[in-house]
């Protein structure tokens, strides 16, 4: 006998989807964005929305569930981690005025992800605030080839790294969510 939840999906059209295509807020009916910056922004938005979708409908205890022991990773930990990472990217852009860590020393973002509603609410608020602040900082640098910060990192590289970070963690979120309540789908 296994304690694993039964696999399920909300989708009725394709069993491997999170929701039906007509209900997926990530889908657009129009053409793809024009230009490199618009494409980078579109991918970032889509992955951010995917992470939020993977967390929807769960209570604080479920969000904090460490589904793959001995890992400390949880959906709530991912939300906190990505808030911390957004802040860190701003520190790359503006290294002369670094913002302090949100949650403390290394791995505090995951270790402090406990099943308390106030912690969960704060994490989602932190993520939204940090995303907006990083978006605003990057808006100041529309030239993707421009070099910023002490290390002269290209703005393009920051955008691509953000997409990579969200994409990787959305993959983790897929597995974590399935372990929590059995829900599957991209």
Spell out the CATH superfamily: dinb family like domain
Q: Strand fraction band?
A: under 5%
H-E order: HHHHHEEH
Q: Count up the domains.
A: 1
CATH architecture: Up-down Bundle
Radius of gyration: 18 Å
Strand arrangement, major sheet: 1-2
Q: How many angstroms does the end-to-end distance come to?
A: 27 Å
What is the count of helical runs?
Answer: 6
InterPro entries: DinB/YfiT-like (IPR034660), MST-like (IPR007061)
Pfam families: MST (PF04978)
Protein name: DinB superfamily protein
Describe this structure in words.
It comes from Jiangella alkaliphila. This is DinB superfamily protein. With about 190 residues, the protein is mostly helical. The chain has one domain (about 35-180): dinb family like domain (Four Helix Bundle (Hemerythrin (Met), subunit A)). It is built from six helices and two strands; from the N terminus they run αααααββα. It has helices at about 35-55, 60-65, 75-95, 110, 115-140, 155-180, and strands at about 145-150, 155. It has a two-stranded antiparallel sheet. β1 (about 145-150) and β2 form a beta hairpin. α1 (about 35-55) runs parallel beside α6 and α3 runs parallel beside α5 (about 115-140). It is flat and about 50 Å long. The mean pLDDT is about 90.
């Amino acid at each position: 006998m296994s304690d694993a939840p039964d696999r399920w999906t909300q989708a009725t059209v394709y069993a491997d989807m999170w929701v039906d295509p007509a209900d997926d807020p990530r889908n657009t009916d129009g053409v793809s964005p024009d230009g490199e910056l618009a494409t980078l922004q579109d991918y970032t938005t889509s992955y951010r929305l995917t992470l939020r979708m993977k967390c929807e409908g769960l209570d604080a205890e479920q969000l904090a569930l460490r589904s793959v022991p001995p890992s400390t990773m949880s959906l709530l930990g991912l939300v906190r981690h990505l808030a911390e990472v957004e802040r860190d990217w701003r520190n790359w852009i503006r290294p002369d005025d670094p913002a302090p860590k949100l949650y403390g020393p290394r791995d505090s973002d995951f270790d402090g992800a406990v099943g308390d509603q106030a912690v969960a609410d704060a994490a989602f608020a932190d993520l939204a605030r940090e995303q907006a602040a990083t978006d605003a900082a990057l808006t100041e640098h529309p030239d993707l080839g421009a070099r910023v910060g002490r290390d002269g990192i290209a703005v393009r590289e920051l955008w691509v790294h953000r997409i990579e970070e969200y994409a990787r963690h959305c993959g983790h979120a897929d597995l974590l969510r399935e372990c929590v309540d059995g829900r599957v789908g991209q």
